[in-house]
């Protein structure tokens, strides 16, 4: 999405920031990279007995709480249920991240069912991340202008941070307009179809990212997911027109909170200190963030393994349910003061404060 175009993309970093950016050229810690693979071989397989119940339970709780928020008359009960719905659906939605990394044969039917009950109803089908997120993990593209999921936020103006976070609340109505209006119009207006695909079909934060047209089997998958989203979005708008707008407004509010939570998580997923140069794998790791125990509430704002985001950049295919154990093994192996320990942080607020201070120092 291109909602972040309001952010200043012409940072003018001073000497202090420039010194910090030299870390992008640090050599790889080969011992750490080798150990990350060797110490975790036995926990590298995705376990369906964990994936399926987790995703289905999160979805069920989310939709149940959303229905409760719509139906109850007590405003405080509706607020509490709306918050629960947002957190549960947030967890269910973030399985889209797992779909981009697990082997296509690892969990038969999981992608289809997730799209059917989560991706399409929430208007964020898996194609919006598949084929996009993998670029972020490409060795030569991470942190560069070609990375759809990277902005040098630490080097931008301080007001960029609240703009970045708050624009996320516009995502749900934008997705509704995209699926109900723009996608159908694109069928008869090819230039519009090309524009929507290139600029509004990816969960990207880099406003310069222009997505290539889908090809082969992926194009087939995109067609059916787009069709499902359009039919659902049009049906939702028609039902709201016929029976009242209150349920849709509440649902959009819940989803806006979910989008905001994810955007805040994104703010602390990396240090965002790279100015566009290609980075070594170790530099990418150190520009990323782990928030392991004893940090509180990290499982709420960074669910499905995303509190181990730096470790994920070392082991992109490691299933989310194995990341905590992988972290324990590597922490025991290397200990404090090592390269591995340098990507571990105590919590959300210290990371937000660090990012805010970085923007102030840069200007």
Automatic annotation (TrEMBL):
Keywords of the record, alphabetical order, are: Membrane, Transmembrane, Transmembrane helix
The yes or no answer to whether the keyword Metal-binding is present is: no
Question: What Pfam family does this protein match (any one)?
Answer: FA_desaturase
| Keyword Heme applies | no
Q: Which residues cross the membrane?
A: 50-70, 76-96, 108-129, 163-189, 221-242
Q: Which PANTHER family match?
A: DELTA(5) FATTY ACID DESATURASE C-RELATED, FATTY ACID DESATURASE 2
Instruction: Write down what this protein is called.
Output: Fatty acid desaturase family protein
